[in-house]
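Our working data are protein records whose layout never changes between entries. Instead of coordinates, the fold is spelled out as a row of discrete tokens. Here is such a record, shown just as it appears in the course material:
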Amino acid sequence: MIDGPYFVLVVIGVVGTGLVAGVFCAFSTFVTRGLAALPPAQGVAAMKAINVTALMPAFMLVFLGTAVLCAVIAVVTFVLWPDQGTVELLLGSALYLFGSFGVTMVANVPRNEALAKLEAGTQEAADYWPTYVREWTMWNHIRTVASAAAAVSYVLALS
């Protein structure tokens, strides 16, 4: 059984991965769909504003803090190698670090940076917008599932 400070780390890991999964789920299920329904200039402008706001401390603390916590959980798991939950802890950490944080860095952030370079009312932005929404959302689905699966994996490690 996982106990003491290690238990607390894993419970916080469940909360962090679950919160991130919820944010990503909201985007996958209705935010990007709502933005895509707007005229391209409005959708681009709104998404650019969202991307700037996402970099504020509140979300970044949860998103980056959870990544650091998952890395700590993985390292502690390797050091302690508990009798139970080892696979679930390592799987949960890998799911978040690669499937959520990693996908964000290699798939979503580059698309956000490309969108940021475009002026909302231009033809270039209007042409890129449908591709951006389709590709960004596809990668966001992966981040959503990976974050939720990480939370479930950590919960299983505790049971």
